[in-house]
Each structure stands twice: as C-alpha cells, then as structure tokens.
Amino acid sequence: MNAPFILSLALIAQTAQLSVSELLTNPDRFNGQRVTVIGTMNNLRGSTWHRGTRRYTFDLGDDNRTVYVISFEKPPCRSGAATVEGTFERVKKGSHFSNEITARSVTCLSVKREERGKR
Question: Is residue 119 part of a domain?
Fold first, then answer.
C-alpha cells in the first residue's frame, strides 16, 4: 500500500464524534465531509425511492437542533439514542438550505424491550 492511501485510512478512522448542535453550528465546515454524529433518533419513515430502491429517513437531534438523515438500510431501531456515520451535505432547496446526512451506518445505543422482541 502507498503512504497517501494509509494516511487517508488513518484520517477516516480518527473522525471525531459530534453532537448535532456541534455539526450545525458551522455546517459549511463539514459540507461534503464524512461525519459521525450522536443524537436522538425520531420520526423513522420508510419509502420506495427511484426504481424501487427502499430508503429510510429520520430526524437526528439533540436538545437544540435536528438534522435530516437518509439511510438505504433499515436502522436497527425506530427511535432513541443513536450514532450515525455518513456524509453531511448542505442541500439548496429553493431559497434555503437543508442539512442532511446520507448514512453509511446507524448504530442504536439503546434498544427498548418491546423492539427486541420484534427482531
């Protein structure tokens, strides 16, 4: 392996965990970047997207702010504390910007007893 490749792997592995508020305090800094964000997952919705591809969306928030998350894999929980790893983007929608994370993975930090029985 070459040195630049190894360095890029090391940088990816060192991605710091952010709160939603930390991410959204300076969204331009993180635009297009891979991020790991911790927060509370709410409003899980499933839908069929282009050409029959299934996707899931939810809100990830903390006490102050919320970011929209898109996942092409069904998250292991419907709500509660979670960590999302993915790519953050500021997407222009009409006259304003929307903050979105396209998730590579969703890790649930607490699973309610009733959800365990549904698996």
Answer: no
pLDDT of residue 13: 47
Q: Report the predicted TM-score, pTM, of the whole model to 2 decimal places.
A: 0.78
* Helix, coil or strand: residue 102: strand
Q: Give me the number of domains the chain comprises.
A: 1
Evaluate whether residue 32 is within a structural domain: yes
Can you tell me the mean pLDDT for 25-37?
A: 95
How far is it, in rounded angstroms, from Cα 98 to Cα 92?
Answer: 6
Is the separation of the CB atoms in 106 and 38 below 8 Å? no
User: Which residues are CB-neighbours of 20 under 8 A, at least 6 positions away?
Assistant: 37, 38, 39, 60, 61, 62, 64, 65, 66, 67
40 falls within a domain: yes
Contact 60, 66 (CB under 8 A): yes
